[in-house]
Amino acid sequence: MNQTTVSTSSVRAVLHYLIEQKFITEQDKPALFEELGISQQAIEDQEGRLSIATYHELWGKAKQITNDPAIGLHVGQQRSVELMGLVTNVLVHSDTLEQGIEQYARLYSLVNNGIDLIFDKQGATSVLEFHHYKPEFYCIQDMERTLALAVQRSRQYVNDEIRMEKICVAHPAPSYAKEYEEIFGCPVEFDCSICTITFSSKFLHFSPKQRNPYVKSALQGYAEAINNRLFKRKIGDKVKDIVLELLPHGQADIDHVAQRLHMSRQTLYRKLKKEDLVFQELIEEIRQQKALEMIKDHQSSLSEIAFVLGFSELSAFSRAFKRWTGKSPKHYRQQGNDNSNEPNPT
User: Fold this and answer.
1) 255 CA to centre of own chain
2) How far apart are CA 84 and CA 333, in angstroms?
3) Buried b vs exposed e over 205-221: b needs ≥16 C-beta within 10 Å?
């Protein structure tokens, strides 16, 4: 599946809130579905998917219907068990919170394959990082719901003592910013580079309240099968996506990429070898392709291109580009301009 989609369990949660709070009725749903181009049958399918663009349209419509800019936070406080998706059910039936979060992060594509969820244990503190693959995949209401759900469900299904140390969000402080600290019970920072949840690692050994290892095993097997069917991609393609995101931050090394893929560096090396790929050669290929693309596009300066590709200095980028093409980036771009001004042969 190449399309970026979300699980329809998220869609059902929004609809459930609108109906429960009496903003719409069951009879209103067909008209709403028609307006958004949504199939009711697909929404009711437990394995159903909805394009992320249409999902964001639904949030916009919900915000309009309710006249509530904080609707994401409010939808995220729903406590109904029937609204839990497949991946959350895997988490709440795991032996410990740590094991559950690891599985949740690994299977997060089933929730929303426009986001890469990273679980980073940093000694006394642990962090959940939400990396959006593209800016257009970011939706304020969806992230507010996601963060509120994480906090609410950790207490509801694991342990009432769980508290967050800090929440970071990647959008500006809204007019209802005060609600954030009331809901999360911790400091909240806005305009961050990514969304994160920071909490004490001491909570990781807590066991979910009603876990069932047999249910967990069955659900995990089911989730793995769906995940493989929908999102089975070559490891090289996954590495390329992650490297392009990490290059501007100077983090496109084997350790950071392996962490994002939830595997050791040795495992990543081994998987790449099966596809006849070498990590450093792949980095070089990605940089070269991206450099040629950006130079031909004429939208970025050479310094900006060097930054995007992770070069610390323009001179280092120029040397690499000359190695790839035999020309300096300035000469290559000028040559492209000269060629574009030539009349087409008739």
Assistant:
1) 19
2) 53
3) ebebeebeeeebeebbe
Residue 341 predicted with pLDDT over 80? no
Tell me, yes or no, whether 214 lies in a domain: no
Residues 183 and 307 in one domain: no
- Among candidate residues 86, 94, 107, 79, the one with its CA nearest the CA of residue 158: 94
CATH at 44: 3.90.1520.10
pLDDT, one tens digit per residue, over 80-124 is 878 889 999 999 999 999 999 999 998 999 999 999 898 988 899
Cβ neighbours of 62 (radius 10 Å): 21
In a domain, 15, yes or no: yes
DSSP letter at 2? -
Count of residues making up the chain: 346
Are residues 101 and 21 part of one domain? Answer: yes
Helix 279-297 vs helix 314-325: angle between axes, to the nearest 10 degrees? 100
Could you tell me the residue range of the domain that residue 26 belongs to? 5-205
In the numeric block, which tokens belong to residue 117? Answer: 């969820």
pLDDT in tens, 19-65: 999 999 999 999 999 999 998 888 988 889 999 999 999 999 999 99
The answer to whether residues 175 and 321 belong to one domain is no
Cα–Cα dist 47/172, whole Å: 34
pLDDT of res. 1: 55
Distance, CA of 109 to CA of 51 (rounded, Å): 13
Q: Say yes or no: 18 and 118 in one domain.
A: yes
State how far the Cα of 220 lies from the Cα of 177, in Å rounded to an integer. Answer: 37
What are the residues whose beta carbons fall under 8 Å from the beta carbon of 170, sequence distance 6 or more? 132, 138, 143, 191, 192, 193, 194, 195
CATH number of the domain to which 276 belongs: 1.10.10.60
**Domain final residue pick, 205, 225, 253:** 205
Task: Output DSSP code: residue 11.
Answer: H
Q: What percent of the chain shows pLDDT beyond 70?
A: 96
Q: How confident is the model at residue 2 (pLDDT cuts 50, 70, 90)?
A: low
DSSP label of 343: P
How confident is the model at residue 339, as a pLDDT?
54
